[in-house]
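Deliverable D5.2: sample structural annotation.
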Amino acid sequence: MMLPTATLVCLAALVPFSQRSGAQSAIDAPVVETELGARIDRYLATLAVYGMSGSILVERDGRVIVHASYGLADRSEDVPLTVDMPMLIGSLSKQFVAAAILKLEAQGRLRVGDSLPRFFADVPADKRSVTLHQLMTHTAGLEYLPTGNLFEPMDRAEVMRSTLALPRNEESIGRHAYANTGYTLLAGVIESVAGVSFEEFLRRELFEPAGMRSTGFEWDTAAEWRARLGVHSYSGLSDEGSARAFPVAPRLAGAGGVVSTVADLYRWELALRGDVVLPDSSRRKLFTPYVDVGGPIRHAYGWNVITTPRATTMIAHAGDIGGYNADFRRYVDEGLTIIYLSNARVASGGWRQAVLNNVSLLIAGAKYAAPPSVVELPAKRLEAFTGRYRLESGQELRIWLDDGRLMIGGDGSEAIALLAAMSAVDSTLATTYDERTLTIARDMVTGELSSLEAALTPSLPRAELREEIARQLRSHTDSLGAMREPELLGTAVLSPSSARTYWRMKFERGSVMQEWSWQGGVIMSLDGGMTTAMATVLAPTSSTEAATFDPFTGRSVAVALGVDGGRSLTVISGDRQATAVRVSDP
């Protein structure tokens, strides 16, 4: 329904970047330097075979030691990702809006303590006391997302009127409650004060002084860098198209929409170390933690300030939109900056989460989730793995080739548990998710969507999602007939708080598989249209063996072809081992 899952990348990524290019010049050029940089490069090159695609820049003690890209920008055309290809950065955009407000304050044109009536006419009574400080710290009690169609064409004035008209949650005032709508209003404030569009102000006052030549807005059709905006967004196996064709959401202006490269974001980082874009007093405001978010996290202006397990300070923020995901981390006490942009997500989340966590652990010399080593095999040898394999329970595993990548998936609770490397404790928890999913799915058969809405994360736009689900259900019933009793396939528990449940919408003349991803007891995404549950990249580790790898959990599942000519398959999953017999082609 939704937003599918899994990721593919060319085997060319097996060769570490340091061996693929001799370019070692400025930050525009690819770089892998020092022994530590080579270790990071080898890790990411291997990870790319398991589905990762992205660009990264790592600075250690004032020196860029990695500036490289891995995987594919366009899977269908086998186009490799390169460091000069801009990508959408999602909520990383907010730091630029916050900096623009501080720039205007430094120019004496506003104050962060100013309230909305100074900038907008006819501000509703419940928002007249809202200050710019509250908007920048997400403490104004505003809605997370606007209601209605985010992609409806709308001029900037109407965007501001509709955003101001949204309800305000009195209970959230003064507490951190993340609100994209607040940053949309900040974009309007910039325009009100500067007398130009907020895009032009950011370009003139921030991007250009920082030397960010490949940074702008996805809707900027005249930009020089637009010719390089061909990186496709991948949500699992679903190709959502390139950023050039990505739908513009006028009502999220200020909250997202910026495109950039890791090199340009590094230029921004360098600019913030001096007075290129902001004076020292404004920079201190930008990074001052003002409000508790939870645990070790506090929020500044467009940035999070985090105390690490090493009792050091990290200033960071992340962003996600479709398959695009971004992460920007400054370990200010450790001389380390890591910037990462990706064009792919899997059900567990954007690749940014696994890559940044593991790269930072690798750099710190701590234990990290290292993938099994891989080998490169010719296509004919990969074909020897493909087929349908039946477990003793009668459930099946399927191995197939997709764009030159081996994939594995399953059908049924045992197959799912094997591919997720689940423990006995995980299996008990899976039952809870199974029961919740089945209850919601049965309600959907009757046309009742309220139980689904109650289970959704607040970060999903409920009104739009309800409309989209209802539309897809109508489409399915028009082509497949009336809905029948849903078929539960099972749940893959990946951690105490993370799981994926698979089930089939059954109709008179067919079915549609669904994958629901859970985090913290709520549904984070709803994906549909896949043909096999737990579709996962299976990378060859020898001529007769292959493995899956989940960088979010560190779990790996190994498979080995039998000495009987490949008619059987041995699966090693955690402390479990199972044998499956080949019954057909894939």
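Annotation notes: The chain is about 30% helix and 30% strand. The mean pLDDT is 90.
The annotation will be released with the project's public dataset once the embargo ends.
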